[in-house]
Design a protein that fits this description.
The complex is a heterodimer. Chain A is mostly beta strands. Chain A contains no helices and twelve strands. The model of chain A has no long low-confidence stretch (mean pLDDT 90). Chain B is mainly beta. The interface between A and B is medium-sized, with 25 and 29 residues.
Chain lengths: 116, 114
Amino acid sequence: GDSVTQMEGPVTLSEEAFLTINCTYTATGYPSLFWYVQYPGEGLQLLLKATKADDKGSNKGFEATYRKETTSFHLEKGSVQVSDSAVYFCALSTHAGGTSYGKLTFGQGTILTVHP
Amino acid sequence: NAGVTQTPKFRVLKTGQSMTLLCAQDMNHEYMYWYRQDPGMGLRLIHYSVGEGTTAKGEVPDGYNVSRLKKQNFLLGLESAAPSQTSVYFCASSRARDRKNIQYFGAGTRLSVL
């Protein structure tokens, strides 16, 4: 079945440090890939997405590239801020045959804490 | 625009009690979902619905029931709560024609079963 594996957390960084959160996946077919972010006390928000190989998703300074050859979708940011402290989820979506319903499969989440 | 609204935000139950979690969306989305979030396990799909009057089981459906009587509402019921159902519950919705399957989430309901 489909699965998503994220790097173990928590990750603690100083402000302006470089961030990488690793994500690899296993899926049949050609999934869409997502990063969701969950700020304290809130629900999940879509951070960025990529729908085909070599696509780069980007938003709020975060980037991730869909690498089919390594089945990876690593999240990066060049200079993190205290406000980036949150839980980050990697996820993939595949489609049931004949329908547009897509099941989202999530990784376990990575807690990021950024100190001033 | 409210998006996806979940009620209540917090609840404490005793083992064996029942309750219903309400999810409402104002985006006219066809698809709705219930997930549970447990530490170290990400989100797991409990039940989902692809339209009014239809529901289907997800990855972890046991102990839960759902109903979608109106397009904008998706209810999750626990008939006899167990401590294993202590979790944070999230509702989400998405458009039927969105093949990227971008889902929009509510703020969650934190449930403790004693």
